[in-house]
């Protein structure tokens, strides 16, 4: 006599591997089908619901704080459309395509200023410019500190909070490693903080002369010489470089804590970590 044995198999889903496999593919599918089926297609990422919700709130907004929410999310939607990125409400998404990243960041910087916290604990309240310096080197300009932060751009991670929470969308920036020759930088002002390496140097505003020597930097930063120089930090370490939030809106999570506790994660790992935090919302 044989006994039938029923085996139950439950698939194990590794979220990290799924994200790694489908990076940017959902955007391409959404953009393709939105164009082919503009009235019938429902987006993979729930981006269509994001836009519909924005339009509904836009018809009924009657308070200053809600008007600010709609103003910021309009900027986000325009930037997402131009960069062909698709993301829904209460979703987080990593973008690895540098072309899309540049389009998205350039668009949002046209319209707003940002609060910014860096992974080495630097903080600025007026990031007003995003710029590409060469193939991989990019910079953020802090207007309130007259300081430039240089980094090797790898990815961005975007989070869109529910509109009725009246919180700021968040953009994390992931940096890649930059190698530097220590034998040629003996006199350079090199920092090591939280195992994050970066160099401080100055640019003379009158003649664009660069100042790298530590003693010369200290001397230039004394007295009336300060206004003649632009302060520049170049970061060499990979990790979650910073996060940007729109100054007009508040933050939903303790993003400083998330940043400082996870600055050595990859962008994909951070995406998975934050997704687990927002599932309950």
SSE pattern: HHHHEHEEEEEEEEHEEHH
Q: Tell me the structural class.
A: alpha+beta
Global outline: elongated
What is the makeup of the main sheet?
Answer: 6 strands, antiparallel, barrel
Q: Given the structure, what is the number of helices? A: 8
Mean pLDDT across residues: 83
Plain-language structure description:
With 281 residues, this protein is an alpha+beta fold. Helix content is 33%, strand content 28%. The chain is built from eight helices and eleven strands. A six-stranded antiparallel β-barrel has the order 2-3-4-5-6-11. A hairpin with a 5-residue loop joins strand 8 and strand 9. Helix 3 packs antiparallel against helix 4 and helix 4 runs antiparallel to helix 5. The longest helix has 20 residues. It is elongated and about 60 Å long. The chain starts with 14 loop residues before the first helix and ends with a helix. The N terminus is likely disordered.
Question: What are the salient characteristics of this protein?
Answer:
single chain, 281 residues, alpha+beta, six-stranded antiparallel barrel, 33% helix, 28% strand
List the helices and strands and how they pair.
Blueprint: H1 15-22, H2 25-36, H3 47-60, H4 64-83, E1 91-95, H5 98-111, E2 114-118, E3 123-132, E4 137-142, E5 147-160, E6 170-176, E7 189-193, E8 196-204, E9 210-211, H6 214-220, E10 229-235, E11 239-246, H7 255-261, H8 267-278
Parallel strand pairs: 5-10
Antiparallel strand pairs: 1-5, 2-3, 2-11, 3-4, 4-5, 5-6, 6-11, 7-8, 8-9, 8-10
Helix pairs in contact: 3-4, 4-5
């Amino acid at each position: 006599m044989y006994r039938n044995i029923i085996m139950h198999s439950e698939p194990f889903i590794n979220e990290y591997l799924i994200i790694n496999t489908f990076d940017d593919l959902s955007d391409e599918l959404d953009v393709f089908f939105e164009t082919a089926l503009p009235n019938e297609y429902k987006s993979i990422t729930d981006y269509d619901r994001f836009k519909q919700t924005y339009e509904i709130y836009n018809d009924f907004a009657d308070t200053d704080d809600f008007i600010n929410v709609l103003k910021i999310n309009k900027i986000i939607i325009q930037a997402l459309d131009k960069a062909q990125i698709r993301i829904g409400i209460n979703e987080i998404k990593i973008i690895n395509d540098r072309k899309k990243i540049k389009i998205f960041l350039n668009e949002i910087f046209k319209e707003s200023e940002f609060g910014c916290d860096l992974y080495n604990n630097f903080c600025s309240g007026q990031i007003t410019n995003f710029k590409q310096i060469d193939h991989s080197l990019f910079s953020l300009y802090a207007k309130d500190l007259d300081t430039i932060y240089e980094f090797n751009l790898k990815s961005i991670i975007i989070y869109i909070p529910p509109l009725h929470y009246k919180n700021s969308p968040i953009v994390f920036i992931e940096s890649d490693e930059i190698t530097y020759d220590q034998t040629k930088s003996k006199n350079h002002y090199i920092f090591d903080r939280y195992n994050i390496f970066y160099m401080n140097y100055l640019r003379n505003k009158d003649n664009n002369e660069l100042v790298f020597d530590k003693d010369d930097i200290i001397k230039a930063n004394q007295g009336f010489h300060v206004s003649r120089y632009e302060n520049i930090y170049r970061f060499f370490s990979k990790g979650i470089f910073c996060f940007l939030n729109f100054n007009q809106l508040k933050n939903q999570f303790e993003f400083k804590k998330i940043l400082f506790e996870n600055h050595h994660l990859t962008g994909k790992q951070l995406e998975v970590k934050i997704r687990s935090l927002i599932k309950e919302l």
